[in-house]
Amino acid sequence: MNPINAQIQLVSRPQGEPTLDNFKLVEAAVPELAEGQVLIRNHFLSLDPYMRGRMNDGKSYAQPQPLNEVMMGGTVGEVVASKNAAFSVGDKVVGMGGWQQYFVVDANQRGVIQKVDTTHIPLSAYLGAVGMPGVTAWYGLVKIINPKAGETVVVSAASGAVGSVVGQLAKARGARAVGLAGGADKCRYVVEELGFDACIDYKEHRDLKSLSAALKAACPDGVDGYFENVGGMILDAVMLRANAFSRVAMCGMISGYNGEPIPMSAPQLILVNRMKFQGFIVSEHMEVWPEALKELGGMVATGKLKFRESVAQGIASAPEAFLGLLKGRNFGKQLVKLV
Amino acid sequence: MNPINAQIQLVSRPQGEPTLDNFKLVEAAVPELAEGQVLIRNHFLSLDPYMRGRMNDGKSYAQPQPLNEVMMGGTVGEVVASKNAAFSVGDKVVGMGGWQQYFVVDANQRGVIQKVDTTHIPLSAYLGAVGMPGVTAWYGLVKIINPKAGETVVVSAASGAVGSVVGQLAKARGARAVGLAGGADKCRYVVEELGFDACIDYKEHRDLKSLSAALKAACPDGVDGYFENVGGMILDAVMLRANAFSRVAMCGMISGYNGEPIPMSAPQLILVNRMKFQGFIVSEHMEVWPEALKELGGMVATGKLKFRESVAQGIASAPEAFLGLLKGRNFGKQLVKLV
User: Which ranges carry the Enoyl reductase (ER) domain (chains A, B) (predicted)?
Assistant: First the structure.
């Protein structure tokens, strides 16, 4: 008899902040495999801020998450049955397995799942530092900010899956890395464990003037590159400290995901400081993945790239963990362990 | 006896909108020339929106205009006396001669004045289409927007010295050119004389919804490139119509020059549409001037690049003409004729 698959579906679209009522746990038997298909047992599910954007129906860079279907999401897992010659039982794979325990896929679709090597790299890292978040950090830092040694790079959400990699890559290039994170514990981790030069606790700075003063102290030579994960007041404060010819990689604006857009207070600074702003989605730049993963995998395997994970237990915990992620309650990469 | 030089000085910094009281007409005899110096009689003075920014004392990309000194500004004129072997009486030159009738310069300083050829190009054009405004248009269009044939390029202040060149260069590259200008006369000129595909009279659209609808009608395939001269609501409206991977050349934000910064309403669209914004100052890109001036000069000489001038008469009229420029009362390149 086939195993039972528990999955989380989106059953209504959040108005503003999502709630547990937007999600529903549904169970069904795993179907029989057709020729070419593979059955994967998901070991870890990745929770990421971009998922909030997909829960809306409006215009965005991706199709909205359909209602009454399994929530989309990246996963790593193990092949437990295969009718495809390219995949064997026991293979470890990464793919878009969704918020569920099992995942059936036609493995003849190129790129839909990828085998991964767990000899030197833990399986979960393929959802973080050696996966989409890591490549996101790499693209924004290397292709947009492109820091020179001695320049100052600032990154928001610095203890998170993306931000932590941005700072460590910047340090590896001889730049000064300054993080922004919420709370003393996260800031201590960013400096002491990840090796950033400084980290500002944004929760201690509730207005633009205070935050801008903290940035001035942490960045005495100004800001040459900013990796934007949050938007809102933090972006305004960084722009006040931006140097001429500074670059801003626009990766996420989590502060505006739940409601009305948050304006940029002083766009004329783009002109005054001859800044470059560039928005990007890493899935549109597949050409950089091999180069990025090579650097990231090598750094993780040799212990030069550190990361931290917040792990929720069991598929039923995914909605709660996701709401916590949107509030910054996670510490490092947010995962759900499914086995 | 040396001629009397009348000049306009800045005597106080405007709070908000400038007034005539901020300026003063001062007369003094032209000094004797020292070795290496040249005396130039200015024929035309260029008035440009950037001058408003320099009248402030705050942080900007350029030194503030000093008080009680001649206003800085670009000029074209004729050498009337020379103690420099490289320049002869009768030579036509372009330089930063200031708001005055005469101008003494050490012509051994490289690049401080440049000889120009008026055989096929009128002298005044070296302050417009074949000068700083033209190269500004060229840089933003070619180096930042870089339109492909069939793409849509929008430019604000489309009948002005910069905007008119942006649209004509875009058309020359096979793109669709859409202008924004204030008033039916300017819009008619932009379409009928300059050859833009469409022009929107922003004065007929007093709110974002109306302006955005007009842009949708004028740009049925969305906006791929935007050349920003004004800021404020027009930028917000264009961002609502921006295509994926669109580029915004930030050249000026005249709407915010007089007072409080005008916010950008929806900066998350930079991310959603993976846009690139880039601020620039053309004087920092001297390496492109020869290539740009070659194309611009060739197009003017052969009648392929059209332009229009608003000409005020006499140095005393410069302050009034400048205030009019800030209000969009000029029609085409604003000059002051000094001879």
Answer: 18-336
